[in-house]
UniProtKB/TrEMBL annotation:
Localization (cell): Mitochondrion
Encoding gene, per UniProt annotation: LDHD
Required co-factors: FAD
Organism placement in taxonomy: Eukaryota, Metazoa, Chordata, Craniata, Vertebrata
GO cellular component terms, semicolon-separated: mitochondrion
Highest taxon above the source species: Eukaryota
Pfam families per record: FAD-oxidase_C, FAD_binding_4
Protein source organism: Denticeps clupeoides (denticle herring)
One GO-annotated biological process of the protein: lactate catabolic process
Family the UniProt entry places it in: Belongs to the FAD-binding oxidoreductase/transferase type 4 family.
Stated name of the protein: Probable D-lactate dehydrogenase, mitochondrial
Subunit structure: Interacts with CSRP3.
Purpose: Involved in D-lactate, but not L-lactate catabolic process.
Length: 493
């Protein structure tokens, strides 16, 4: 079948940005010719059953978008495999007919990674939702792709173990691996790259690959190329993740959380850098600027001082926490920090962190009826004060609504840009701002995406970040594993 049958991808990040947030069309022509579509659907149904294949407009539209600003691109067909064997068999049919394959977890991504920009088949992994193999004594577990982080931690509740990578949303764990997600706990426990031991992957032709060897789960290895981390962050462009073996951690004896306000952005970020330089093994250290704190206060009926604010959390024994807290409090006070609020029991910590976890919705509430786009830059810690202060000035100078929140312990922060998608002048201003912000981070030896991924909108920036030779190497790897360019085409590269 000629690839001319598929829709062409949008030509640039700017076009994508300026066409954001349009409603999905209720009707559209299939990219697959109807005769071929009928044969393909019949073949899919023979593998996954009638209930495992959907052509419904609503189902396709639900699987053609994530939480990003990118417009909806529904697939032509959605399949719901129940096992790796079904994924492999379905992939072989797609490979034979040259049909694009788009993996789908929970749809919580922020870079348009699930849109079927060239039509094709969405592999929705929600029916593969089993925790398969828990080794408590070895601190590891193997899960299917439909298992979310909250579901896993609920399963682990009585074991004394937990999986700490927390991107905020209740994302699927294989989806988190696909985007190399991280979140609030990454400063202590690392990102998905540090916490995936092995992956089972179905390649474009239906071949099943175990990146570290079938059943392998050692804590470290120096055997051959690191295929596991090749697929972590690949965003579905190299294969469908069907199992992930993950590191687990012991639940800390004690957890203490705190909130502290500062007289300026510089003072808050300086405190972050100094706490880390002092060697405090802090679990979370999150930053919200004054605009974001004000939004959170309104949204959650809170009363935090409207000022640049740090949210902190400490894990460990009672004795070790006393030292961590004392050092951190002294550093904060030296930088003008005040209004410390402490919480130790789980309920109190939950209330304290609610403001941070609801930041996205609080930002949206600043302008009812508008939409949000989250930037995602990350820089070396020494550059963090400069880039945050410069970004704040840029927002004020251009009159943009973009409250700042970030995992500043990693040098990663987000501006949640709240905009009217029907105001083309504002859309253009926001686009220009995001370009300036990303290039500001790149100029400081940072990255255009700390945890959300490249997806549709950051392909040009990726080339600027890694250079043409690295892009050529990536393209070569893609061509080797997916010579027909069927795996989530139009993304990343």
């Amino acid at each position: 079948m000629s690839t001319a049958l598929f829709r062409k991808p949008l030509c640039s990040a700017l076009v994508l940005f300026n066409k954001t947030l349009h409603r999905c069309p209720e009707k559209r022509r299939y990219a697959i010719k109807s005769g071929i579509l009928e044969r393909v659907v019949a073949a899919f149904q023979s593998i996954s059953g009638d209930a495992g294949v959907s052509l419904g407009d609503t189902v396709r539209e639900q699987h053609g978008r994530d939480e990003s600003v990118h417009r909806c691109h529904p697939p032509d067909v959605v399949v719901f495999p129940r096992s790796v064997e079904e994924v492999s068999a379905l992939a072989k049919i797609c490979h034979h007919h040259r049909l694009p394959i788009i993996p789908f977890g929970t749809g919580t991504g922020l870079e348009g990674g699930v849109g079927a920009v060239r039509g094709g088949v969405c592999f929705s992994m929600r029916k593969m939702d089993q925790v398969l193999d828990l080794h408590q004594e070895d601190f590891d577990v193997t899960v299917e792709p439909g298992v979310t982080r909250k579901a896993l931690n609920s399963y682990l509740r009585d074991t004394g173990l937990w999986f700490p990578v927390d991107p905020g949303a209740d994302a699927s764990l294989c989806g988190m691996a696909a985007t190399s997600a991280s979140g609030t706990n990454a400063v202590r426990y690392g990102t998905m790259r540090e916490n995936v031991l092995n992956l089972e992957v179905v390649l474009a032709d239906g071949t099943v690959l175990h990146t570290a060897g079938r059943g392998r789960r050692s804590r470290k290895t120096s055997a051959g190329y690191n295929l596991t981390n090749l697929f972590v962050g690949s965003e579905g462009t190299l294969g469908v993740l069907t199992k992930a073996t993950l590191r687990l951690y012991g639940i800390p004896e004690t957890m203490v959380s705190a909130v502290c306000s500062f007289p300026s952005v510089q003072a808050a970020v300086d405190s972050t850098v100094q706490v880390l330089q002092a060697g405090v093994p802090i679990a979370r250290i999150e930053f919200l600027d004054d605009v974001m704190i004000d939004a959170c206060n309104r949204f959650n009926s809170l009363s935090y001082p409207v000022a640049p604010t740090l949210f902190l959390e400490f894990h460990g024994s009672t004795r070790s926490l006393e030292e961590q807290v004392a050092i951190t409090e002294e550093i904060a006070k030296d930088n003008g920090g005040s209004d410390f609020s402490w919480a130790q029991d789980e309920e109190s910590r939950g209330r304290l962190w609610k403001a941070r976890h609801d930041a996205w919705y609080a930002a949206l509430a600043l302008r009812p009826g508008c939409k949000a786009y989250a930037t995602d830059v990350c820089v070396p810690l020494s550059c963090l004060p400069e880039v945050v202060v410069a970004t704040k000035k840029d927002l004020i100078r251009n009159g943009l609504t973009g409250p700042i929140a970030g995992h500043v312990g990693d040098g990663n922060f987000h501006c949640i840009m709240v905009l009217d998608p029907n105001d083309q002048e504002e859309v253009g201003q926001v686009h220009q701002f995001t370009e300036r912000l990303a290039r500001r981070a790149l100029a400081m030896d940072g990255t255009c995406t700390g945890e959300h991924g490249v997806g549709l909108g950051k392909r040009v920036l990726l080339r600027e970040e890694v250079g043409p030779l690295a892009i050529e190497v990536m393209q070569g790897l893609k061509a080797t594993l997916d010579p027909k360019n069927l795996m989530n085409p139009g993304k990343v590269l």
